[in-house]
Design a protein that fits this description.
This protein is mainly α. It has 20 helices and no strands. The protein has one domain: Sodium/glucose cotransporter, CATH 1.20.1730. It is 75% helix and 0% strand. It is globular. The chain starts with 10 loop residues before the first helix and ends with a helix.
Length: 503
C-alpha cells in the first residue's frame, strides 16, 4: 500500500462520473415532460408506485450527509448515535396512525395545510416560513457534503464543486418536477447502495473477512474527540451536557424523526404521491426497514475505516477533519474507475436529497404562501411560478453551501443543530393539533414563539455548553406543546375552524 495515490482522478473516473450526471439530468428531464398542472408538477398526479416512493424517501433522508457523516462520527467518536436507528419502526408507526392518516383524508398538497384546517391560515403561514428556514440550511449542507468529496478526489476547488452540483440538481428538478425527482431518486438509491456495498466488500476482503478481528481492534481504539472506544454503543448517564447518551438519543431521534418523517414537507410530499392509504403505509414502513439496514451498513463502514487507517497510519495523516474520511478513502485507496463509481454514489446521495428539497421548497412557497397572496391564478401561471421558485431556491442553497463549507464541526452535528432549531417548534405545533382538542390559534402561536426561543438558546448560546445540542428538538417541541396548551386553556377563544374541529 503506497502512502500517496498514484493519481487522483483519471480519465476513466471522469467518464464514469460524467456519464452518471448526464443520465440523471437527461432522464429526469424526460420523465417529467408534458406536465400541465401543479398537481402533476408537485405531486406526480398522485399516481406513483409505493415501492418507488419508499426508495425515494430513503434516498432523500439518507443523503450525502449520512453517507459521509455517519462514518465520520464513528471515526471521531463511537457507535452511540447510530444505535438509535432501532427506534425508527415505532416512530414510523406513530406517524402513520396520526399524521399520515390525516393528510391522506384531507388530500392536502402540503402538511401545513392541515394547520389551516385545524387552526387558522396564520398557523399555516408560520409553519411554512419555519420550514423554508429549516430546509434552507439543510439544503446548503447537503450540497456541501459531496462537494467536499468531489474536491478531495478531483483536485477541483470547493467553490467549483459546489456550483457544479448545485446547478445540475437544480436543472433537472426545475424541468421535471416531482415525477422526475422520485424516479431519479429510485435510480440514485441503487447507485448509492451499490457504492456502499462495494466499499464494505473491498475493506472486508482486505481484512480476510475477519469481522470479529475488526470489531476487537475497533474496540481497542478510541475516538479522537470522544475518547471512548469506537465500539461503545450505549451510555446510560443522565447528564444533559453529555453527548449521545441513551436518553438524549432516544428523545432526540423521536422528536427529530417525527419532525422530518411525519411533518416535514420534503418527506411527506412523497407519501402524498401515492393515491391509497394502504400504499402510503407500505411506503412508510418499508422505507423504515431499508433505512435501518443502510444506517447499520454505514456504521460498519465507519468501523472498517477506523481499523484500516490504524493499519495504515501514513495514509491517515491526510485526514485533517472527520468529514474527509470517506472522500480521502475514495481518493487515496480505491482503484482507478472504482473511484468514479463511488464518487457517483456520493453524488447520487446528494442529487436525491437536493432535488427533493427543492421541489418541496417550491410546493410550500407556491401553495402555502404565493397562492394566498395572489388569488384566482391559472394552473399555467402557478406551474411557471413553481419552476421559478425552484430555480431561486437552488441558487440560494448553492450560495449557502459556500458558507457551510467554512464550518468546523462534523456535518452530522452541523445539520443536526441547524435543523433541530426549527424541527422542534414545528413538531410541537403539529402535536397541538393532532393530540389535543382544546388547543387554539393564540396558544399555538405563543407556544411556537417560546419553542423557537428555546431551541435557539439551547443550540446557539452559552447554554449549549451545559446542555448538549441533541436536546434542542425535544426541549423546543415540549415547550411549544406545553406552553401552547396552557395558553389555550387560559384563553379559550376559538375561531370557526376550531369550533368545527371540536364539534
Amino acid at each position: 500500500m503506497t502512502t500517496e495515490p498514484a493519481s487522483l482522478f483519471t480519465t476513466t473516473d471522469y467518464v464514469v462520473v460524467v456519464v452518471y450526471l448526464l443520465i440523471v439530468v437527461v432522464a429526469g428531464s424526460w420523465v417529467g415532460r408534458g406536465q400541465k398542472t401543479v398537481g402533476e408538477y408537485f405531486l406526480a398526479g398522485r399516481s406513483m408506485p409505493w415501492l418507488v416512493v419508499s426508495l425515494s424517501i430513503v434516498s432523500t433522508d439518507l443523503s450525502a450527509i449520512s453517507y459521509t457523516g455517519v462514518p465520520a462520527w464513528i471515526w471521531a467518536k463511537d457507535l452511540k448515535y447510530t444505535m438509535g436507528i432501532f427506534l425508527l419502526p415505532l416512530v414510523l408507526l406513530f406517524i402513520l396512525v396520526t399524521f399520515i392518516s390525516i393528510f391522506h383524508r384531507l388530500r392536502v398538497f402540503t402538511t401545513y395545510e392541515y394547520l389551516e384546517h385545524r387552526f387558522h391560515p396564520i398557523a399555516r403561514t408560520v409553519t411554512s416560513v419555519l420550514f423554508l428556514g429549516q430546509r434552507g440550511v439543510w439544503l446548503a449542507t447537503a450540497i456541501y457534503a459531496p462537494s467536499l468529496a468531489l474536491s478531495t478526489v478531483s483536485g477541483f476547488s470547493m467553490l467549483r464543486c459546489i456550483l457544479t452540483l448545485g446547478a445540475l440538481a437544480t436543472l433537472y428538478t426545475v424541468l421535471g418536477g416531482m415525477k422526475a425527482v422520485i424516479w431519479t431518486d429510485f435510480v440514485q438509491f441503487i447507485v448509492l447502495a451499490g457504492g456502499l456495498a462495494f466499499m464494505i466488500v473491498f475493506l472486508m476482503s482486505s481484512f480476510q473477512w475477519d469481522a470479529s478481528g475488526v470489531w476487537q481492534r475497533a474496540g481497542e481504539l478510541t475516538g479522537s474527540v470522544s475518547g471512548t472506544p469506537h465500539t461503545t454503543m450505549v451510555d446510560w448517564t443522565f447528564d444533559l451536557g453529555a453527548e449521545a447518551t441513551v436518553w438524549s438519543i432516544l428523545f432526540f431521534l423521536f422528536f427529530y424523526n417525527v419532525g422530518t418523517l411525519g411533518t416535514d414537507q420534503v418527506i411527506v410530499q412523497r407519501y402524498l404521491t401515492v393515491d391509497t392509504f394502504r400504499g402510503k403505509a407500505k411506503a412508510v414502513m418499508s422505507g423504515g426497514i431499508i433505512s435501518i439496514i443502510l444506517v447499520l451498513a454505514l456504521a460498519s463502514l465507519g468501523l472498517l475505516l477506523v481499523v484500516f487507517y490504524d493499519k495504515h497510519p501514513q495514509l491517515a495523516a491526510g485526514i485533517t477533519r472527520p468529514d474527509m474520511l470517506v472522500p480521502h478513502f475514495v481518493a487515496y485507496v480505491l482503484p482507478v474507475g472504482v473511484r468514479g463509481m463511488i464518487l457517483a454514489a456520493l453524488l447520487a446521495a446528494t442529487m436525491s436529497s437536493v432535488d427533493s428539497a427543492l421541489n418541496s421548497f417550491a410546493t410550500v412557497g407556491i401553495m402555502d404562501l404565493y397562492r394566498r397572496w395572489a388569488r384566482d391564478l391559472s394552473e399555467a401561471h402557478l406551474l411557471r411560478m413553481g419552476r421559478l421558485f425552484t430555480l431561486v431556491a437552488g441558487v440560494l442553497a448553492t450560495l449557502g453551501a459556500v458558507f457551510v463549507s467554512g464550518m468546523q464541526s462534523t456535518v452530522i452535528e452541523t445539520v443536526g443543530k441547524l435543523a433541530s432549531t426549527f424541527i422542534g417548534p414545528i413538531s410541537g405545533m403539529f402535536f397541538l393539533g393532532v393530540l389535543t382538542r382544546r388547543a387554539n390559534t393564540f396558544g399555538l402561536l405563543v407556544g411556537s414563539f417560546c419553542g423557537l426561543t428555546t431551541s435557539t438558546l439551547v443550540a446557539w448560546t452559552p447554554i449549549s455548553q451545559e446542555v448538549n445540542w441533541m436536546w434542542t428538538a425535544p426541549a423546543s417541541s415540549a415547550v411549544t406543546f406545553l406552553v401552547g396548551y396552557v395558553v389555550s386553556l387560559l384563553r379559550p377563544q376559538a375561531g370557526p375552524r376550531e369550533q368545527e374541529e371540536r364539534a
